[in-house]
Write a structure and sequence with these properties.
It contains one helix and nine strands; from the N terminus they run αβββββββββ. The chain is mainly β. The longest helix has 14 residues, at 2-15. It binds copper (II) ion.
Length: 138
């Protein structure tokens, strides 16, 4: 009997490291970034865009799972505040299948591109989970 109790205790102790809480959206390490294009770049349409997140993980849209979300690219618009649902139109693109790259058709000229992470119900994680860059399309 004592051996059994000891065994159970050992298993419980061994399991502790796996019970760590998922990273909260406001964990200091969590952030998103464009892997391409770079800020200030001159590019040609269609523009190849790469999306990356640290401190959280990508998950297809559909349900809210703490520490996860999907990417959005906002074109020439402001970043929705935390908790606001990201609109779905040609200035707010959703990558709800969990995509991390895409190509954007952009008109020639200067554009502001914002990469934004939002939860499974498309609710913005706010400016702290966004990155804005400027590009010039030839
Ligand atoms: Cu979305």
């Amino acid at each position: 009997m004592r051996i059994l109790v000891t065994l159970i205790l050992l298993i419980a102790v061994a399991a502790v490291p796996f019970c760590k809480k998922a990273a909260a959206p406001d964990a200091p390490a969590a952030r998103v970034s464009f892997t391409q294009p770079t800020d200030g770049a001159t590019v040609v349409s269609p523009v190849k865009v790469g999306m990356s997140v640290e401190g959280m993980s990508v998950r297809p849209a559909g349900e809210i799972v703490p520490g996860t979300g999907h990417f959005h690219i906002l074109i020439d618009v402001d970043t929705p505040e935390e908790g606001k649902v990201v609109p779905a139109d040609d200035k707010h693109k959703h990558y709800g299948k969990g995509q991390t790259e895409t190509e954007l058709e952009l008109k020639p000229g200067q554009h502001k591109l914002t990469l934004l992470f939002a939860d499974g119900m498309h609710q913005s994680y706010g400016p702290k989970m966004a990155q804005t860059i400027q590009v010039t399309v030839k």
